[in-house]
Known about the structure:
By secondary structure, the protein is α+β, with helices and mostly antiparallel strands. Helices cover 28% and strands 26% of the residues. The protein has 3 helices and 5 strands. It has a 5-stranded antiparallel sheet, sandwiched between helices. Residues 1-25 are annotated as: Disordered.
Amino acid sequence: MDVVESTDFRSPTPGPAETGEPQNGQLLSCCKHTIDMHAAYNSMMVCSDCKQIIKCFDDEKAFKNYQRFCASRHRKILATEHSDRFVVVFSSYDTYST
């Protein structure tokens, strides 16, 4: 599964090992497992291993719209595809920053 987009709108943060964030712009294996287990029943979930928030979309238009929403909130995300779903992964609900 190829990475579609990775955006970072915040100042530098601790590295991936410290935050559980995707390494090299790739979806972590624990997140893939969580998506495979839960996406059919719930479009938004939290990975039990790395605690990242995962939102899945079947519709590309909604996926792109959510990416714009995250950008407006200056949220660091990983946008990719997995198991025929569009996926957005982020560490937490960041408060709005300017």
